[in-house]
Design brief:
Oligomer: heterodimer
Order of helices and strands of chain A: EEEEEEEEEEEE
Shape of chain A: globular
Structural class of chain B: mainly beta
Helix content of chain B: under 10%
Strand content of chain B: over 45%
Order of helices and strands of chain B: EEEEEEEEEEE
Strand content of chain A: over 45%
Distance between the termini of chain B: 33 Å
Chain lengths: 113, 117
Amino acid sequence: AQKVTQAQTEISVVEKEDVTLDCVYETRDTTYYLFWYKQPPSGELVFLIRRNSFDEQNEISGRYSWNFQKSTSSFNFTITASQVVDSAVYFCALSVYTDKLIFGTGTRLQVFP
Amino acid sequence: DTGVSQNPRHKITKRGQNVTFRCDPISEHNRLYWYRQTLGQGPEFLTYFQNEAQLEKSRLLSDRFSAERPKGSFSTLEIQRTEQGDSAMYLCASSFSKAGPYTGELFFGEGSRLTVL
């Protein structure tokens, strides 16, 4: 069975702090894809990144970075120098080469000025 | 705006009534997905279409739920004899894929929130 666990329900930080959102996944498949989506208060899920199981390179995009470690089945997301606009619910998701995404329960991030 | 559009955005109904939600995907997208999201949870897959064909249905989609995409463009999700447990946000997403599983970015709408009294 496949599963995504986001143990952090809610995180609060003050602006300019760095914050890491944890994601642990479970699958027996060797081919899979991992995603992060952002859900602002408007409700629309916004794609942030996709990683396939054969590419463990970390990625940086502006203030965002992702750390993929197969050894620990983790795909963590770090926001550097957080801003109020980063406040949202962030979801980690898994796809085992199907059209179906399996989402975690999400982490609500609140960034205070 | 050419994003995914969902209507209505909010629906309040009494238990036992039928409701229908509509999703208009991005025009060139051939795949369309429905997800359900309850409070404090992540979205759960319900079903998806490639063009007009419904290719997969989750076990979450009971007999009271039916989804259609008659002409391969917009889709409707109907819930018959609604129950309080159906209260949730119903999310639609779309993508384009010629063949095989799609594992790329999904484009989501803002969702249709259902409240069953």
